[in-house]
Amino acid sequence: MTSGTIFVIPWGLDAPGSTTAAVTIAGLAVILIVVVRILRMGTVVTMDGVTRRGMLTDRHHPWPDIHELELLDREVVHVAYGFQVTSRYVVTVVVGRQRRRKTLLFLDERGFATAARFRAELDVVGALWDQRREA
Questions:
Q1: Which residue in 15, 20, 53, 85 has a CA-CA distance of 20 to 30 Å to 114?
Q2: CA-to-CA separations, 10 to 4, 14, 118, in angstroms, rounded
């Protein structure tokens, strides 16, 4: 819908060709930026802490600021057209002085070949948290 609007509106405004081209290029640039931001969303776990990459901002939480690491089993999975669209497991952390609960984006079983591999990865994250939060 948006791309159709971007391509139709400039020609409907009876603007000069250069203006139409500029508006079209600007619209395509906006779409490209949005796609790139969506593709880089997720969670990055390093020796320094956890970084939550969102659509607009990235938030880094050092290990000492993380008070809890929790795995919630929702016991429900939604499937659409043969694809799993929601995760069964949600990984959250409690961060900061206000102890706010934050969901770790895209750190779920859908990114792993098996549930055992997902749990092994979470064990590594938990061990890293235990090791680094007191440092």
A1: 53
A2: 11, 7, 48
Cα–Cα distance, 126 to 132 (Å, whole number): 10
Neighbouring-strand partners of residue 83: 80
pLDDT 10s digits, 70-110: 989 888 888 899 888 888 888 999 998 899 999 888 888 88
50 contacts 96 by C-beta, under 8 angstroms: no
- Residue pair 47/128 in contact (Cβ under 8 Å)? The answer is yes
Q: How confident is the model at residue 93, as a pLDDT?
A: 92
pLDDT, one tens digit per residue, over 32-58 is 999 999 888 989 999 999 999 988 899
Nearest to 43 by CA among 83, 76, 90, 79: 90
For strands 79-80 and 66-73, give the pairing: unpaired
